[in-house]
């Protein structure tokens, strides 16, 4: 990956809808060179996809919560069962396996407190692998970004 690939990635992180012509202007290459490089970045998996960022409040999602989960038993079967649950649930936006006191940290969205309570009680706490959950509700969003610091890579 060279400086032009990084420029292409940086530009696309800020606006994934750029045409190859617009991208070429921003990075200093021809449209055909940008097109080839973009395609190669996609095929190699560096660019995983393109998405639209949706305002959660405008679609009825009022709460964002951070939930820490502790397993009741640290065997591979329990961990795999919980990973499958987290991957398949649309309310779970992000899920991380951790070192330290908690085993997993997940970011969950819900319509309201009742919806969040149902998720915690009926999905997480009812799961055989889960021993304990700790939930914090986000009071506001200070920063939410998908842009990676490519100059540090």
TrEMBL record:
PROSITE patterns: HTH_ASNC_2. The keyword Zinc-finger does not apply. Pfam families: AsnC_trans_reg, HTH_24. Keywords: DNA-binding, Transcription, Transcription regulation. CDD domains: HTH_ARSR (cd00090). GO terms for cellular component: cytosol. GO terms for molecular function: sequence-specific DNA binding. Residues 1-62 form the HTH asnC-type domain. It comes from the Bacteria. This is Leucine-responsive regulatory protein. The gene is lrp_10. InterPro entries: ArsR-like_HTH, AsnC-type_HTH_dom, Dimeric_a/b-barrel, Tscrpt_reg_AsnC-like, Tscrpt_reg_AsnC/Lrp_C, WH-like_DNA-bd_sf, WH_DNA-bd_sf. One of its GO terms (biological process) is response to amino acid.
């Amino acid at each position: 990956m060279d400086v032009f690939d990084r420029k292409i990635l940086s530009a696309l992180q800020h606006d994934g809808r750029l045409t190859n012509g617009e991208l070429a202007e921003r990075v200093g290459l021809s449209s055909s060179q940008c097109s080839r490089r973009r395609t190669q970045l996609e095929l190699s998996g560096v660019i995983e996809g393109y998405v639209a960022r949706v305002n959660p409040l405008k679609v009825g999602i009022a709460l964002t919560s951070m939930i820490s989960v502790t397993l009741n038993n640290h065997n591979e079967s329990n961990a795999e069962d919980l990973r499958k649950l987290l991957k398949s649930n649309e309310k779970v936006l992000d899920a991380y396996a951790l070192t330290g006191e908690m085993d997993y940290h997940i970011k969950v969205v819900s319509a309201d407190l009742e919806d969040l309570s149902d998720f915690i009680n009926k999905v997480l706490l009812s799961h055989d692998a889960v021993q304990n959950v700790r939930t914090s509700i986000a009071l506001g969003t200070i920063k939410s970004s998908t842009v990676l610091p490519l100059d540090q890579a």
